[in-house]
Specification:
Layout lengths: L2 H27 L2 E2 L3 H22 L3 H20 L3 E2 L9 E6 L6 H13 L1 E6 L2 H8 L7 H9 L6 E4 L6 H8 L3 E4 L4 H14 L4 E4 L11 H15 L1
């Protein structure tokens, strides 16, 4: 199996593992159990499997994570069939997946990330304001924010897109959009820290999913593309 196919296979497994965990979490939130000792023990076991599923997901053992979710699902379904519990699977309404970025030069890496976001649920994209780009990158963006927003809106994987706050406000964005999942790119290390701190301060039930590998390697990024174009223009002048 070559490298691109291997990456695709692993990401599909991760997506499935995350969806199964989300389904179990939704069922447990709506769970009502009859006060019987056996039922309580089974629920405790199902919750234990759900914790194991999250544990193995974090360690990138997606097959074991899916197996643990399946055990938890089977136990809950058995309780419901015997009339000992009632709950609803949370498959009817997909989770909201928040993706943020500059999206200055759209490339295959952006499309890959947004496609993965769509596999997880309903995709809401926050496009960075010009002031945020200037502060983070030390330069004004080549493409202004209103045009970057329109391009992102036209991408088929995107359900909704909006401009970020000015100045950037991670906590405000999380409270406004209310995502179930925040999907981060492999190079969004600083943003990951900000999001984790904001989730903790706000005491929100939001899961962070981070892509492990950059599609196309280090040369495939908006900044590197802009740099190569600038060097090309300079060499031809």
């Amino acid at each position: 199996m070559n490298c691109p196919l291997r990456v695709e296979y692993v990401m599909n497994l991760r997506s499935r593992a995350e969806k199964y965990i989300g389904n179990i979490e939704g069922a447990l939130r709506s769970l009502h159990v009859k006060k019987e000792a056996d039922a309580e023990r089974v629920v405790k076991l199902a919750k234990s499997y759900a914790l194991d599923a999250a544990y193995y997901l974090e360690r990138e053992d997606y097959v074991t994570s899916i197996a643990c979710s399946s055990y938890a699902e089977g136990l809950l379904d058995a309780l419901r069939m015997m009339g000992l519990a009632s709950f609803e699977w949370s498959r009817r309404e997909p989770p909201t997946v928040l993706v943020g970025g500059v999206f200055e030069v759209i490339h295959v890496g952006h499309l890959y990330m947004l496609r993965k976001a769509r596999e997880l649920g309903r995709v809401v994209v926050v496009v960075a304001r010009d002031s945020t780009v200037e502060r983070l990158k030390g330069r004004k963006p080549i493409i202004p924010e209103d045009q970057r927003l329109e391009v992102v809106k036209s991408i088929k994987y995107v359900d909704k897109a909006c401009l970020g706050s000015d100045p950037m406000d991670v906590e405000g964005t999380l409270k406004r959009i209310k995502p179930n999942i925040v999907l981060l790119g492999p190079d969004q290390h600083g943003m990951e820290s900000l999001v984790r701190e904001s989730i903790k301060r706000l005491d929100l039930n939001i899961r962070i999913v981070k892509l492990k590998e950059r599609v196309g390697g280090e040369k495939l990024s908006s900044s590197s593309i802009i740099s190569r174009v600038s060097r090309l223009r300079f060499s031809q002048s």
